[in-house]
Amino acid sequence: MRLAAVELLDAATVAGALDDPVDAILATSLLGASDLRALLPAGMRAIPIILFMHENQAAYPFSEQPTVEPQRDVHFAITNLTSILAADLVIWNSRWNRESFLAGMHMILRHASAVDLKDWDRTVQEKSQIIWPPVEPPPPGPQQLVAGPAPGRMTTGALHNPTTVVWPHRWEHDKGPDELLEIATRFSEPLNLRWTILGWQFPTAPPALIEFERRFADRIDHIGFEPSRSRYWEHLTRCDWVLSTARHEFFGIAVVEALLAGCLPWLPNRLSYPELVPREAGGLSPLHPPRNPDAARSAIITHLQPALAANAVARLDDAIANLLDTS
User: Fold this and answer.
1) What Cα–Cα distance (Å) separates residue 117 from each residue in 102, 200, 251?
2) Most buried pick, 21, 23, 30, 115, via CB within 10 A?
3) CA 24 centroid distance within chain
4) Which of 162, 163, 171, 143 is nearest to 297 (CA)?
């Protein structure tokens, strides 16, 4: 993050990307935009910079690894702030992402007693737009619920028996595997649940997932990373519910994919999740299923239209074009 601007500029120079006129620079929040602007050749420093905030370091969770410094390095969050102040347009992938950054930076700056920044938060808000990232819809097929209000996944409105649940997260502590184990322990038997566990795995799995696999082996339909994209969609379309136990999620592409595939939301009322489902589909779970699953799915699909890849890309294009027209 601290050297990304240098690395990007070196790569752009080698590739000849700066030899011709440049209309704009699009960077992510893992780059110091203020560093990049300062490092650009003098004649290029006025080029508009669009910063896509796919995460923010003021709200990023601590690692539970004992070898990691137990105190937050606030320099990464400050790099986010200076990047935002240096950028011409800031695009956030969720309202939660922006609001958690503002709240986190207020806490950080309270400890900077020698610094008095004027209206920095208003400047952040004025430069900001919320645009969900592009999410590819499921491939077309008889079991897919794609865009539009007419549901096509389960025409009877019924749920499976046993009830099928997918947990589609990478296997790390911030995705709440301990809460997954607790939920499975409490509800697998009384609700007759079967499980599909997806997501990227690392060499060392969280103990809660190891225990989950041992304890619920007879209720698991699939567990482990699925490298095939088509088979990944098949897993999603076989499930009734998508469960998240995440403590950290700035948007939630895996959850949105599952919702687009027709899963109902078993989601906590925190992070970005309240933004991803319409009010009429909030608070659902296998304990409180909808009276009409098809109607709930239809409302969710309609709500998620801005995230569908073509729509989200069009919004990003429009935001960038508007910036260039007014620059």
Assistant:
1) 13, 41, 29
2) 30
3) 25
4) 143
